[in-house]
Write a structure and sequence with these properties.
Elements (H helix, E strand, L loop, with lengths): L1 H22 L6 H14 L9 H9 L1 H4 L1 H9 L1 H4 L3 H30 L6
Subcellular location: Cell membrane
Membrane topology: Multi-pass membrane protein
Keywords: Cell membrane, Membrane, Transmembrane, Transmembrane helix
Length: 120
């Protein structure tokens, strides 16, 4: 019974996100809004982590299987995607490089401003 309640809490936040996204015609998907609402509820202690921890850990552990329908859909519509394959690959490659650069800059900034020089 505990797992059903935890799943219902997570699904309730997903439903709230979908309702907000659809009623206000937001360009952000409802699932993302639901995750943000769940994050806020956890931060403000409206719900405790123990209320959703077990089901959350299960969903995280089995995340790869949740992406299978999307991957099959992409493979099914490959003929539509094929003409745009080179631009898609270039964008993905550029995004990876940009992420690496931004992460390096952030780490460098944090290391220089928040870590002291400690004698060895």
């Amino acid at each position: 019974m505990k797992y059903y309640v935890q799943l219902m809490i997570i699904l309730l936040f997903s439903l709230i996100g979908e309702l907000l996204s659809n009623s206000f015609r937001l360009p952000v998907p409802g699932s993302i809004i639901g995750l943000f609402c769940l994050f806020l509820a956890l931060q403000f202690n409206w719900i405790r982590l123990r209320h959703i921890n077990d089901v959350g850990q299960f969903l995280l552990a089995n995340m790869t299987i949740l992406f299978l329908p999307a991957a099959v859909g992409i493979m099914d519509k490959f003929s539509v995607i094929a003409p745009y394959l080179l631009p898609i690959c270039l964008i993905v490659f550029a995004a990876i490089i940009l992420n690496i650069i931004i992460i390096a800059l952030v780490v460098h900034f944090i290391k220089n401003h928040y870590e002291g020089d400690y004698p060895e």
